[in-house]
């Protein structure tokens, strides 16, 4: 597989870094999918649809294999997306404080003929957060473009007592499932022949 055959349809620098960990050459392409949950659509179906739409938009006009991905939080059945503003972030953090929420990350891979996808669920346990640290966290600029308004890989990691699931999935790309899907399309991580 040459460099021009594998594409990552993502604007996220986190996803780029995570995919690079697998050691396979790839090119980044943009995606302009509108993210809006349909009426009655479950969080699980929504995140998987977005990952598939990103991959399928990315393969248009290209030949090769395209990866798309999406991450969102879920608390009491309600989807936690990127915060609209400080008030929205504060509302999320107050609800997340001292308890667990779920992070769902979907990854989809397509070659333009078929699309395969997986959804990975990780439970994230937050310690209690004080009003002053929440107010400070907003000023760092870190939460603004993150689902659930925090980054486990940044100072937001100081809110996380523990997780049950995949750290990489919380950051934006589950590596086990990504490697598994790539192998379906003949792209082998670690050059394994299995
Ligand atoms: C919970 C959490 C999310 N995130 C990020 C991962 C995603 O980049 C982002 C969720 O937004 P997404 O809409 O999944 O992705 P994106 O808009 O950043 O990139 P693209 O659609 O182009 O692929 O939140 C973290 O970096 N750390 C975390 O701990």
From TrEMBL:
Q: What is its main location?
A: cytoplasm
Q: Which reaction does it catalyse?
A: UTP + H2O = UMP + diphosphate + H(+); dTTP + H2O = dTMP + diphosphate + H(+)
**Residue positions of the active site:** 70 (proton acceptor)
Instruction: Kindly list the places in or outside the cell where this protein is found, as annotated in its UniProt entry.
Output: Cytoplasm
The protein's superkingdom reads Bacteria
The protein's matches in CDD domains, at most eight in alphabetical order, are given as: Maf (cd00555)
Which cofactor(s) does the record list?
a divalent metal cation
Name any GO cellular component annotation.
cytoplasm
Q: In its keyword annotation, does this UniProt entry include Cytoplasm? A: yes
Q: What is its EC number?
A: 3.6.1.9
Q: Which UniProt keywords apply?
A: Cytoplasm, Hydrolase, Nucleotide metabolism
Indicate the enzyme's highest-level EC class: hydrolase
Endoplasmic reticulum among the record's keywords? Answer: no
User: What GO molecular function terms would the record report?
Assistant: dTTP diphosphatase activity; UTP diphosphatase activity
Belongs to which family?
Belongs to the Maf family. YhdE subfamily.
- Tell me what this protein is called: dTTP/UTP pyrophosphatase
Species of the source: Umboniibacter marinipuniceus
Origin organism lineage: Bacteria, Pseudomonadati, Pseudomonadota, Gammaproteobacteria, Cellvibrionales
């Amino acid at each position: 597989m040459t460099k021009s055959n594998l594409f990552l349809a993502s604007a996220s620098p986190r996803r780029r870094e995570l995919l690079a960990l697998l050691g396979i050459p790839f090119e980044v392409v943009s995606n302009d999918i509108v993210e809006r949950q349909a009426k009655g659509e479950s969080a699980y179906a929504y995140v998987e649809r977005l990952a598939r739409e990103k991959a399928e938009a990315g393969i248009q006009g290209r030949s090769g294999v395209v990866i798309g991905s999406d991450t969102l939080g879920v608390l009491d059945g309600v989807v936690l997306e990127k915060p609209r503003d400080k008030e929205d972030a504060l509302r999320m953090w107050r609800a997340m404080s001292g308890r667990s929420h779920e992070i769902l990350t979907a990854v989809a891979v397509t070659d333009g003929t078929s699309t395969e996808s997986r959804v990975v669920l990780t439970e994230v346990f937050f310690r209690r957060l004080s009003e002053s640290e929440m107010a400070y966290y907003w000023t760092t600029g870190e939460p603004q473009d993150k689902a659930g308004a925090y980054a486990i890989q940044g100072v937001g990691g100081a809110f996380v007592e523990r997780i049950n699931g995949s750290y990489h999935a919380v950051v934006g790309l589950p590596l086990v499932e990504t490697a598994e899907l790539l192998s379906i399309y003949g792209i082998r991580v670690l050059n394994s022949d299995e």
